Amino acid sequence: MKGITKRWVLNSFGVILIILTVLILAFSLVVRGFYYNGILQTLSGRSSELANIISDADAFTDTAREYVENFPDKERMELMAIDGKGHPFITSTGFTPDQNQSMPDYQSAIASSDHFADWHGRLSSGENVMALTRVITDRSGNPVGAIRYVVSLEAADRKIFIAISAVCLVGILVMFFIFISSTYFLRSIVRPVREIGDTAKRIAQGDFNARIDKFYDDEIGDLCDTINYMAGELGTADKMKNDFISSVSHELRTPLTAIKGWAETMQLDNFQDEKTMRKGMGIIIKETERLNCIVEEVLDFSRIQQDRMVLIMDRIDILAELDESIYMQKERAASENKNIIYEEPDMLPPIIGDRNRLRQVFINIIDNALKYSSSGGEVTVNVEQIDMNVVITIADHGCGIPAKDLPKVKQKFYKANQTVRGSGIGLAVADEIVRLHGGTLEIDSTENVGTTVTVTIPITVEKLPEETEEL
To answer: What is the reported pTM?
Structure first.
C-alpha cells in the first residue's frame, strides 16, 4: 500500500465510502420517517373519530368503556381509557391497566391547547412504542378524561432494519465492484509505471538496449514509446561518442607516431643526412599542425556545446578568405592526384564576419571533398551573388553519402563512412559557425555520384560601429 495505490485508497475510495455512508444514513432517516409518520397518521385518524363517538362529556366513562371494548383494531394497537384524574381504568387488552407506567404523551396533551399529543419511546418492559393521547373536555374546557392509542413499533422497526440492511448490502456490493474494477485499473497503471521505472534505471546504468513492452494504446503507451525512443537515441549517441573517441584517438595517434619516429631517427648519433633531416623536420611540422587542427576542432566543438563560441566580426572580403583556403589545399590535392577547379569572380560585396572562422569552414568543406574523392577526381568551387547573399558551392564527384545518412551528417560525432579519417565533428562545427553568421549550410548528395555543399552568407547591409563613429 504505497504510491498511487495508497493515494487512491485514501482519496478516491475513501471519498466514495463517505458518500455511500452519508447516502445510507439519509436513506435510513427517510425510511424511518416514512414508517413512523404512517403510523402516526393512522393513530391521528383514529383519534379524530372520538369527537363523534364521545359527544357527551358527562357520560365519558360509560362511552369510553364501550368504545374500548368494541374497538375493532385491537390486534393492531392498544386502546386505553383514562379518567379525569389521569388514571387508566380500562384497556383493550383486557388486563388491568398498569398505573405506574409513564405516559409522556398524556402529560403533553393535558398541557397542550389543542388537547392532543404524541410520543414514541420505550416502555418499562423495553418495548419500543408510539403513543397518541387525545383529551376529552366538557363544555367549560375542563378535561374529563382521555383516550390513549399505543402501537408497538417492533414490526415497523423490523421492516426498517430489513430496508436499511438491503441498502447496506447494495452499498457493500457497489464498494466491492468499485474496488475490483479500480484494482484492475490501478494495476493497468502501476504495472507499466513500475516497468518504466525499472527500465529507466537500466538505461541510466548504460543498458541502452533495454525496452518497455507497450501495454495500452494511451498516455502510458505513448510514454513507453517515448522512453523506448529515448533509449534508442541515447544508444545511438553513445555509439557515436565511442566512435568519436576511437576516431580522435586514431587521428591523434597517427601524427604522434610520425613525430615520435622522426624525432627518434634524428636523435641517433650517426644521423648526418641533411636532406633527410629537412624532410623529417617538414613532416614533424606538418603533423604538428595536423595535431593542432584536431585539438582546435575539439575545442571549438566544446565551445559550441557550452554556447561559448565567440566571433570576431569585421568587414571582410570573402573572396580573399576562400582563395586562401583553396590555396592551402592545392598542394595536398596535387599530391593525391586530384584537382580543384575554381574561377574567381571579379568582385563581390563585402560581408560582416569572422575571417578565421569562415576560412575554417571553407577548409573543412574542401578537405572533406578531397577526402571522399578518388584519385584523378575533381572538386569544383563556385561563388556568386544571389539577391542579398553570397553563395559558395563546393562540389565533388566522390563516393557520395547514402540517403539514410544524409540527414545526420551535420550531427555531432556522426560519421557516415567509418573507413575515412576524421573526427565526425567538423561539419557540426562548420554548420554552427555559418549559423552564427546568419547563414545556412546545406548538403545535397547522391551515393556513388557526388556531394554538393552550399554555404549561404548574407551580404553586409549596415555599417560597423567603428565606421559609424568615424562618420
So the answer is: 0.49
